[in-house]
Amino acid sequence: MIHFFKDLRERLGSGKRFVLVSVVDSAGSTPRGSGAKMAVFADGSYMGTIGGGNVEYLSIQEAVQAIKEKRSLTRGFNLSKNQKADIGMICGGNVEVSFQYIDETDTAYLEMLDQILKLYEEDVDAWLITAMRNGAVCETGVYDEKNGLRFMTAVSEEQLRPYLRNKSVRTETDPVCFVEPLVQSGCVYVFGGGHVAQELVPVLSHVGFRVVVFEDRENFVKPELFSGVHHTVLGSFQEISDKITLKEKDYVVIMTRGHQSDYEILRQVLPVQTAYVGLIGSRHKIAATTKRLLEDGISEQDIARMHTPIGLAIKAETPAEIAISIAAEMILCRAERKEGTA
Are 319 and 195 in contact (CB under 8 A)? Predict the structure, then answer.
């Protein structure tokens, strides 16, 4: 979402008014779940998506009208075929969409966008809070662990704290608030800066991971090699703790140029609880590496956490295809963690 908020900040800063369209509740089968967003402008142009189809088409029309009337509102859509008030879709669910009018005079919203962009650069957990009263958005704020609740007075931190979760929720407060994860702490540490890493980093960045590349070769830590990288680290694979400290929410992807380097990193990483550890390589290499790890005292339980061969089994061959398979596995891992099933 960082790209979305960056574009929104630029447009609002240049005097463009818009309506922020957000899915704030959904039930059954719907194109996009709670938290999906798009911004609609006065000429009907838009960025982002709430799932396409008729819901999006009607929402764009509603948003353009809301800009003309300078008002905010909430509207429900029935996606069940042949039901009363259905909109011709057969998904079988219901979705509630909020329309928040923002114009160039809203300096507080502009300041909030600036803070959101700063939060994306920090390794913190943060949430976007949208308060709704009488069927319309009345206030928007952000909460993060360092600064607490900002830009909002309609509810207190104490009221919100039980709703700060890994997925979007509606509160039972007055006013009702829609609380959605904005930034989740944790980085993806990619060890090795070769061809697969150069394909993988842009994909992971595009789907919302904060990616750091760790290499021991100076020519392979140049940021220009990795579109979307947060930063790169030049250091020794034998002593990674000299440069980084792994945490519980971090992801580790190991794809160095040699088996020995891969092994050295695994030896240091596996005893630490992280969200994900993936190792690229053949089954023969994995069997030999596992044997060495056991001989060095790494427990079977820790070794079992390793995803290897890394990536989902889509018969990937090229670096780009391998990157897609790895990213898909990590997206699945992230989603399962949010649901509490991993």
Answer: yes
For CA atoms 232, 238, 240, 243, give the dihedral sign: negative
Which is nearest to 136 in space by CA: 40, 60, 59, 72?
A: 72
CA 308: distance to chain centroid? 24
Express each pLDDT in 252-284 by its tens digit.
Answer: 999 999 989 999 999 999 999 999 999 998 888
Q: Tell me: the pLDDT tens digits for 306-340?
A: 999 999 999 999 999 999 999 999 999 998 988 77
Does residue 296 contact residue 172 with C-beta atoms inside 8 Å? no
How far are the Cα atoms of 160, 229, 298, 321 from residue 202, in angstroms, in the given order? 34, 7, 33, 13
CA distance 109 to 127: 15
Cα separation of 209 and 272, whole Å?
20
Flag whether the pTM goes above 0.85. Answer: no
Question: Of 188, 187, 196, 189, which Cα lies nearest the Cα of 323?
Answer: 196
Q: How far apart are CA 156 and CA 174, in angstroms?
A: 10
How many CB atoms are located within 10 Å of the residue 137 CB?
22
Strands 251-254 and 169-170: unpaired
Backbone angles phi, psi at 327, to 5 degrees: -60, -40
Dist. CA 28–CA 43, nearest whole Å: 33
